[in-house]
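Exam revision sheet. Question 4 asks you to relate a sequence to its structure. Input first:
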Amino acid sequence: MKKTHIKRAAALAVAALMAGTALAGCGTSGTNSDTASGSTKAEASANKGDASKGKVYYLNFKPEQDKAWQELAKAYKDEKGVEVTVKTAAEGTYEQTLTSEMNKDNAPTLFQVNGPVGLAKWGEFCEDLTNSEIVGNLTSKDFALEQDGKTLGVAYVIETYGIIYNKTLLQKYCDSDFATVKSIDEINSFDKLKTVADEIQANKDALGVDGAFTSAGMDSSSDWRFKTHLANLPIYFEYKDDNVTDTDAIKGTYLDNYKNIFDLYITDSTCKPTELASKTGENAETEFKDGKAVFFQNGTWEYDALSKSLKDDEMGMLPIYIGAGDEAKQGLCTGTENYWCVNNSASDDDKAATLEFINWCVSSEAGTKAMAEKMNFTIPFKDAKESNNALVKIDTELTKAGKTPVSWNFTTMPSEEWKNGVGAALTQYAAGTGDWDAVKTAFVDGWKTEKAKAAE
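Answer key, structure tokens:
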């Protein structure tokens, strides 16, 4: 293992190790000549490996899919005779866990990054996959993560998030005497969403709920929904206005819109804003499953947990409206921050085994069935099976109806430190110990500072 490189990477990312949520990575950029030659050497040697003699160690990012990955690893060993170890990082600790594991002799042969920012940090440890079979199986080159002309990562799942709602409860509201909005289909703007949420909150006893929205918990198991996923919306609309895909200096054009939707979440809620600092992701999930809230900002990855309490026809999903853009044509937030990378410091046999394993996952009958039915994934590969995920199907229907999906731009957020700064400011704002100007400062000034650090 390149322990000296890993230690240098860990030092550069020390602030990010306290991070709470998103995918991502530490390390340094792989743009120097040593890295380039190392990748070339790694690619050449990988071709010499014997997959049957290798082993796979996958550091998984998704806790909700741990059981499914363990089962798939066993199925692969039973079929191929190759050992596959899956270790799943606890929620909000992937970056810290990855840094720790990569500094060991028995490091992961397969890990993941969240996109260009993560790749910039981990690029020198990524095998060049350009000529690999798995890259050839992608449905589009858009799902290949490239750096310096090399494919160093491949997206393995496409996901969607928005405002999940309980159809039965929302229809009960629409049918009530106090409802201004009489049809779920009418909810196609922030103003309409606010009207509905406010009226549900005012009449929560009549509807038998504790609030319109589940608790917007700001502990590490939940705050990513707001400092990352919700924060994507003002970034998306600013990028769209400026016709860019990244920036070193975010302007904060839509931060007032961000405030409006966050205010709605924390006031029309199952709990007081002052309680949010300690509320967890499990709290929100339980509130929704138990019918204590009508709305729940989350994504397609929640389907498996929700389907244990709700039938498919009881679940719906709305776009996250913030009062920006052409809301009538706005779709759900669809994209990926999940890219597989193969450790170029693994042995030739282990690299060969790892490449064969991930290609089997996305091309074999057993692999694609598990990813579609057990993990409820939509995967961007030619042999993919249609997911049974009802929330995925809603996204497909909206896109077919002409709605424009909101792209995932949080992969361009400068660092975990930036997200933590925004999250802390949001928590203080909700608790009444901080003001919205502090959120703006964390968002705009923090962005510029962290982008500058990343460029050093």
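Marking note for examiners. DSSP finds 19 helices and twelve strands in the chain.
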